[in-house]
Write a structure and sequence with these properties.
With about 240 residues, the chain is α/β, with parallel strands linked by helices. It has 2 domains: about 70 residues, Hypothetical PUA domain-like, domain 1 (Ribosomal Protein L25, Chain P); about 160 residues, Alpha/beta knot (3-Layer(aba) Sandwich). Helices cover about 30% and strands about 30% of the residues. It has 6 helices and 12 strands. The chain has a 7-stranded parallel β-sheet, sandwiched between helices. A 5-stranded mixed β-sheet has the order 1-3-4-5-2. Helix 2 runs parallel beside helix 3 and helix 2 runs parallel beside helix 6. The two termini are about 25 Å apart. One of its GO terms (molecular function) is rRNA (uridine-N3-)-methyltransferase activity. Specifically methylates the N3 position of the uracil ring of uridine 1498 (m3U1498) in 16S rRNA. Acts on the fully assembled 30S ribosomal subunit. Keywords: Cytoplasm, Methyltransferase, rRNA processing, S-adenosyl-L-methionine, Transferase. It is found in: Cytoplasm.
């Protein structure tokens, strides 16, 4: 945890933050960072600024922080809308943290032919689990801006009815290992990127994305796991 992240409702009128000792953040402060009374640490309010807090009290029930300042801006977001075929539940958790850490603020989780329908029933898609992984990713990156996640459980209606508006005025790409064009480097413009499942997009899906105006790109001959492909593509594009 490189940044203690808190929500606006946790901030008291006295400009303090009171954490129960069993709170994960309090445990990290006392047991991992081993901070003591009077020490300071970096904190950030969700969708607001970053700054410093001072430890006012540590007792058997609470850890109390004095919020000294929150005047530093969050790091810039990546100018990308990432559309990701819903991964296997365990891989979703890792991928989500990686994407948030890298600065993705707009994510669509998409159903494709090779996504098992059971994935959509996974506990990993519950709001509290998604929030947990988002928070871990933000804490790692010292970021406070909460990403926006939407779900597209029907491929064809999404590509035909929703995607055209999303890609308007942006460079639109989909990653596919059999594409002729290599993934570009160092984009200086907003981008929409579609990443398929580990089994790849089926020909029908490739055709539909191409008809919608997206260009297929590849990263070379190696077949990558989803979390590796996400990181490699974003690092190369930006």
């Amino acid at each position: 945890m490189n940044l203690l992240l808190f929500a606006a409702h946790e901030r008291t009128p006295q400009n303090t933050l009171i954490l129960p000792v069993q709170d994960r953040r309090a445990t990290h402060i006392t047991q991992v960072l081993q901070l003591q009374l009077g020490d300071t640490l970096e904190v950030g309010q969700i969708n607001a600024g970053i700054g410093q807090a001072k430890i006012l009290a540590i007792n058997s029930q609470h850890l109390i922080l004095d919020l000294l300042s929150l005047n530093q801006a969050a790091p810039p977001a990546l100018p990308v809308t990432l559309i990701l075929a819903l991964p296997r539940p365990r891989m979703l958790a890792r991928s989500l943290e990686h994407m948030v850490t890298l600065g993705v603020k707009h994510l669509v989780l998409l159903h494709t032919a090779r996504v098992q329908k059971s994935y959509w029933q996974s506990p990993e898609l519950k709001e509290e689990k998604i929030a947990q992984h988002i928070q871990l990713g933000l804490e790692q990156a010292k970021d406070t801006v909460w990403p926006h996640i939407t779900y597209a459980p029907l491929f064809k209606p999404f590509v035909e009815d929703v995607l055209p508006e999303i890609i308007q005025g942006k460079k639109a790409l989909f990653a596919h290992p059999h594409s002729q064009q290599a993934c570009p480097r160092g984009l200086q413009e907003a981008c929409v990127l579609v990443i398929g499942p580990e089994g790849g997009l089926v020909p029908y899906e490739v055709d539909l994305l191409t008809q919608a105006g997206l260009e297929g790109v590849h990263l070379g001959p190696r077949i990558l796991r989803v979390e590796t492909a996400v990181t490699a593509l974003l690092a190369r594009l930006f």
